[in-house]
Design a protein that fits this description.
mainly beta, Jelly Rolls
């Protein structure tokens, strides 16, 4: 490839089975990249009026995780093989303004580029309803940084 070196991207998945209450995933190291994508695929949902809300969190110190302005649409049933995608970048882009920290874990889809630590990411999920249960997988892709020679 003329003019640059292509660095391989990174793919990982985080599966959560039979989630019945609000919790977070283990820390995820997305690595450094030009662009990030997280796709949520719900493979099972049960209970009466079950709801699943997922927000992306990050921490600088590995302990104090804060919500990012990256939130998925509320889930109430399976995805039927059609995951929902959030695509975002590290930092603010040209003509983007600064943001305040997101204070709500729920409230519908939200996707804004922001500053975060890609080495310390968690997915916080909020589950509600009567006897709710969800199985879901997060597919995480880090698109590489292209280096110019």
């Amino acid at each position: 490839m003329s003019g640059g070196i292509w660095i391989k991207g990174k793919y990982q998945s985080v599966a959560t089975a039979a989630a019945v209450s609000t919790s977070t995933t283990a820390a995820i190291d997305m690595g450094i990249g030009d662009c990030y994508m997280i796709a949520i695929e719900v493979t099972a949902a049960s209970g009466t009026s079950p709801t699943l809300d997922i927000v992306v969190q990050s921490a600088l110190d590995g302990t104090n995780y804060k919500d990012l302005p990256l939130r998925f649409t509320q889930k109430t049933t399976t995805s039927s093989g059609t995951p929902e995608y959030l695509v975002f970048r590290l930092g603010l882009g040209e003509n983007e303004v600064a943001l305040a920290q997101v204070s709500a874990d729920t409230g519908g889809q939200l996707a804004k580029n922001c500053l975060f630590n890609p080495n310390l990411i968690k997915l916080k999920y909020t589950i509600a309803g009567t006897s709710p249960s969800f199985d879901f997988t997060a597919h995480i892709i880090t698109l590489p940084v292209q280096r110019r020679a």
